[in-house]
Design brief:
By secondary structure, the protein is of the alpha+beta class. The protein is about 40% helix and about 20% strand. The chain contains 17 helices and 21 strands. The chain is globular and about 65 Å long.
Amino acid sequence: MMKSYRLTATAVILALSCLMADAQSKSFKLGQWTEIQNSIIRELNGSYVDSLPVDRIMRAGINAMLENLDPYTEYIPEEENEDLQMMLSKTYGGIGAIIYKQVDSNVVINEPYYGSPAYRNGLVCGDEIIAIDGFPTKGLQAAESSDRMKGKPGTTVTFTVKKVRGGDTLDVPVTRERIHIPDVEYVGMLDDTTGYIKQTGFTENVSEEVKAGYYKLKEAGMKKLVLDLRGNGGGLMNEAIRIVSLFVPKGSLVVSAKGRDDASYVEYRTTSEPVDTEIPLVIMVDGGSASSSEIVAGAIQDMDRGTIMGTRTFGKGLVQSVRPIAYNGQLKVTTAKYYTPSGRCVQAIDYAKRNEDGSIEHIPDSLTRTFHTAKGRPVKDGGGITPDVEIKAEQYSRLVYSLVLSGVVDSYVLKFVREHDSIAPLQDFRVTDEIFEDFITFAKTQDFDYRSSAMTLFDEMKKELDKDGLSESMSSEIDALGKALEMDKEHFIRLKKDEIIPFIEEEIAVRYYYQEAGIEVRLRYDDQLDKALEAPLI
């Protein structure tokens, strides 16, 4: 008996010794790294041929270090704390307007938010801001212009404005306010019994916005609710838990999190009474639905509380915490992985390997594990939430992305606004053939990459053939293929008319009827949502 006790004690001592040695080794390496870094900085400061750009190399070094951990751990210096506040609460001090700016032109009001200080002071789409507090805007970058417009709530900024209607130039003083961009962009009925909530983020109090939306729709006769989380990149985990708590019994497990060791394991359960545990739920997701969106979708799926529809989600199963560091900086650091109620982690197995659109590459079944929902349905881990009902979204051509991202659509819409004082009521407004012909005439004058996807691949192929020395011997075949693929701007735009019109229609509607109008136009053309409404629920 004594011998057994001694063996056990010896084993414990050896184990503790190994742990202590490992801890000492890590501490030594950390101290060594810090000493080497300080030594290099001192040597550079004394010997480098030019003056040392300390701020730039310090930031570059920190960023490079953190990028080697994961894509979500980042350093936020004091001067960027306003950006952190925007990220956490979608609030900032300003006038409440989106601007359009080219370096060689004045600032143009593109979209004033409904009810904002810009709106109340009569600033409308197309108004040109010639100066901000007397400082000319021509020659400024868009970010510089935006920074001058923002400021502490309660302070006043004076714009010298050339009005789009009438062309008068006048000074417009505007008192800045704390601007909140709501995460719930739209609440409305899709038909007599189906309510719809479009949620774009998980910042502070969004759960209250969703709750208020639910009650509004219930009063309108809602019998089924669609919560649209497509493109919702996530945010605060607590808000995700509160949204789930609206629809499941109090005390339900929503998500658990585990950090570096077993002692860090935490379960998060609902702590409030639900508003409705019976209403049929549809959660719409796609490859842009990440983090807190996946917590909501995963919990609803694992509890068999609703039907997840769309395409597979992003696959971000990591929890970030914001920690204060020296000189009023902040460190957004990954502290844990989270797990859905069935026990699965949605984190992509290798977050460095993704498709061009950010979606997860195919994951072999051999690398995933199977879990089960409350009713025993199989679900897998290893890369996002796989919908119960998969519905592919419409794929747009390269031309459409080019027209939008190069600013051609925005520029045309500003031209349209200058030429039209009003448009038809929203429910009646459509982009007519006349408007589309006007757009073509305008787009033909703009400089943008209008090549098709096939043509871009063809251009890459020609470069590879040049590298291999095959261009000359295959010149006739290459020329014939190039001519077959070649298409002028006008021809290609006409060919993609049905894809382009919804984008023009949405942008025009927003300029006259504000942000909610854009969602209503988008819903007209949302084939994926239409198919979801026709699909059977689980």
